[in-house]
Design brief:
single chain, alpha/beta, TIM Barrel, 7-stranded parallel sheet, two-stranded antiparallel ribbon, 9 helices, 11 strands, about 35% helix, binds fe (iii) ion, binds zinc ion
């Protein structure tokens, strides 16, 4: 049986190889990173020798796929044209940059429709993907399940399916399920994980589920607040989080911690979750 594939968000400020080394030092075999400053702005130049060194380190240490994260400021369905242009620029550039580390995942928040309505949001998001995705890209783009805060699109599986169905190269599209977001969004992964996965399968198809953001939730079920908590300290709890990592239909996916922690806290969560992973 394979190892649990687990890691956390790492800072990309010292480059790619440095993230790989940091991941190893905390017992991780995958990681997430922001493709550029989450506040937006110009992306740092990628040095090929650096990404090649990371690829070697990943191969030597049996890493799972990486789950890059788009900046939070990327809103593909903004009402403001300049914000949408920034989103298009970001997506296009990031897809090119991801090819330095081929065959990994690129996760993004579908967007907030800011009063234009869900339907318009879905149209703008799928349009943005159709303008930026290329037939020869090796990256799989992941839509993140959202908590439904404000006017967020993507808190219902139906909305994610609707986006996917309108994208031309949707063989390169998948979903990243965030445990805090779905629980906050009204999918009860605590008392009925199987039911939630069945619903996902019925609406989107479980073959689209490619990665998990593993977070506890600071707020009660269905609160639409999106506040992540450390593993075992929130309303989901350690027992139910380890049911997620051990679930037969999820256990082989990469799990990314986005809990409020420093590196030693992540190291501890990784070791606790590894000890609860059944072989
Ligand atoms: Fe996210
Ligand atoms: Fe997340
Ligand atoms: Zn969140």
């Amino acid at each position: 049986m394979n190892d649990l594939i687990i890691g956390c968000h790492l800072s990309s400020s010292d480059g790619f190889l440095s993230m790989g080394k940091t991941a190893l030092s905390i017992g991780a075999n995958t990681f997430a990173f922001f493709t550029r400053n989450p506040r937006g702005g110009k992306a740092k130049t990628i040095v090929k020798s650096d990404t090649d060194a990371l690829i070697r380190l990943m191969n030597e240490n049996n890493f799972g796929r990486l789950v890059a994260h788009a900046p939070y400021t990327l809103n593909a369905c903004a009402a403001e044209p300049r914000t949408r242009e920034f989103a298009l620029m970001c997506l296009g550039e990031d897809f090119e940059r991801m090819e330095y580390v081929p065959n990994n995942y690129y996760n993004f928040h579908p967007g907030s429709h800011v009063g234009q309505g869900i339907e318009k949001g879905i149209e703008l998001i799928s349009d943005a993907l159709n303008q930026t995705m290329r037939s020869d890209m090796t990256t799989t783009v992941l839509l993140e399940t959202m908590a439904g805060k404000g006017s967020e699109v993507g808190s219902r599986f139906e909305e994610l399916y609707e986006i996917i169905s309108r994208v031309k190269y949707n063989d390169k599209l998948g979903v990243c399920l965030d445990t805090c977001h779905v629980y906050d969004g009204g999918y009860d992964v605590v008392s009925d994980l199987d039911g939630v996965l069945n619903e996902f399968d019925k609406i989107i198809g479980l073959d689209r589920l490619k990665a998990i953001h593993l977070n506890d939730d600071m707020n009660p079920f269905g609160s639409h607040k999106d506040r992540h908590q450390r593993i075992g300290e929130g309303s989901i709890g350690l027992e139910h989080i380890s049911k997620v990592t051990n679930h037969p239909q999820l256990r082989a996916l990469p799990f990314i911690l986005e809990t409020p922690n420093e590196l030693d806290g992540y190291k501890n969560e990784i070791s606790v979750l590894r000890s609860l992973y059944k072989n």
